[in-house]
Amino acid sequence: FFSQVKGKVLSEEDGLPVVGATIIVEDPSNIRTITDNNGNFQLSDVPKDSRVRISYVGWKPSFCILHLICR
């Protein structure tokens, strides 16, 4: 598990933050959140290698896989 996953959703068109995008971890837990006024989001206790869906009204959903990255 990742104890905490943070990110930011930006528009491809103009690079501006996307407010209210939905972030869903597609596993049995169905962990979800929405982006804040700056496009930021935060998830807790996300299983490693989870598939995450990012969606917003009028957009085709985007998907990504979370992998462990150490800094």
Put the structure in a nutshell.
The chain is mainly β and 71 residues long. The chain is built from no helices and six strands.
Based on the model shown, name its key terms.
single chain; mainly beta; four-stranded antiparallel β-sheet; globular; two-stranded antiparallel ribbon; 71 residues
Give helix % range: under 10%
Percent of residues in beta strands: 35-45%
Q: Count helical runs.
A: 0
Instruction: Enumerate the spans where pLDDT stays under 50 for 5 or more consecutive residues.
Output: none
- State Rg: 12 Å
Shape, per Cα inertia axes: globular
Mean pLDDT, rounded to whole units? 81
**What about the largest sheet?**
4 strands, antiparallel
What strand line-up does the widest sheet have? 3-2-5-6
Give the helices and strands as they follow along the chain. EEEEEE
Secondary-structure topology with pairs:
Blueprint lengths: L1 E7 L13 E4 L6 E3 L5 E7 L4 E5 L6 E4 L6
Antiparallel strand pairs: 1-4, 2-3, 2-5, 5-6
Describe the protein's architecture and organization.
The chain has 71 residues and is mostly beta strands. It contains no helices and six strands. The chain has strands at residues 2-8, 22-25, 32-34, 40-46, 51-55, 62-65. The strands form two sheets. It has a four-stranded antiparallel beta sheet with strand order 3-2-5-6, with no helix packed on it. A two-stranded antiparallel sheet has the order 1-4. The two termini are 16 Å apart. The model has no long low-confidence stretch (mean pLDDT 81).
